């Protein structure tokens, strides 16, 4: 006989497992200019990059070397090298992740993210669908936005001297 406790425990366990193993709906759809099989992505990316870009994981705060990157240049998607953010829009949000107040034109796509029991706006690379992070409305002017991005999902390309 199933008890309410057994059903609830099973449901929570299944949801927790699914949350740790989900692949981005955008990434899995294959409707992007750059599209690869799961095995090809695993071969191309480090385990950390794969977890963030393809499974929508989040890196631990204050662990990315890009947090302290202050040179002029461009931050590109680690999955497909599409330029996503200019260093001119980077700022220190104090959150532990690289933050920007504006992406480059047509570089970022957005979708509603209802994981963790809240509604957030997820941002992904418009060329490969790789999960980048989230955007919030508590950033600096002129946009008032804070694109909170996983550093492992980015590569920095320094501007030519």
Note down, in words, how this protein is organized:
This protein has helices at residues 4-21, 25-29, 38-44, 47-55, and strands at 73-77, 83-86, 90-91, 99-100, 108-113, 120-125, 131-136, 146-149, 154-158. It is built from 4 helices and 9 strands; from the N terminus they run ααααβββββββββ. The chain is globular, with a radius of gyration of 17 Å. It has one domain (4-158): Metal Binding Protein, Guanine Nucleotide Exchange Factor, Chain A, CATH 2.170.150.20. By secondary structure, the chain is of the alpha+beta class. The longest helix is centred in the first third of the chain and has 18 residues, at 4-21. A 6-stranded antiparallel β-sheet has the order 3-4-8-7-6-5.
Structure summary:
It contains four helices and nine strands; from the N terminus they run ααααβββββββββ. It is an alpha+beta fold and 161 residues long.
Comma- or semicolon-separated keywords:
single chain, 25% strand, six-stranded antiparallel sheet, 161 residues, globular, Metal Binding Protein, Guanine Nucleotide Exchange Factor, Chain A, three-stranded antiparallel sheet, alpha+beta
């Amino acid at each position: 006989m199933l008890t309410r406790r057994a059903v609830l425990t099973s449901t929570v366990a299944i949801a927790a497992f699914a949350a740790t193993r989900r692949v981005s709906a955008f990434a899995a759809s294959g409707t992007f200019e750059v599209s690869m099989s799961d095995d090809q992505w695993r071969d191309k990316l480090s385990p950390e990059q794969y977890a963030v870009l393809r499974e929508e994981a989040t890196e631990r705060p204050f662990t990315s070397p890009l947090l302290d990157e202050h040179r002029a240049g461009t931050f590109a998607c680690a999955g497909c090298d599409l330029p996503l953010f200019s260093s001119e829009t980077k700022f220190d949000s104090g959150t532990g992740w690289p933050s920007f107040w504006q992406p480059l034109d047509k570089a970022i796509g957005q979708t509603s993210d209802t994981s963790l029991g809240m509604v957030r706006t997820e941002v992904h690379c418009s060329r490969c669908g790789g999960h980048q992070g989230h955007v919030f409305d508590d950033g600096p002017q002129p946009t008032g936005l804070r694109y909170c991005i996983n550093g492992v999902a980015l590569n920095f390309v320094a501007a030519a001297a």
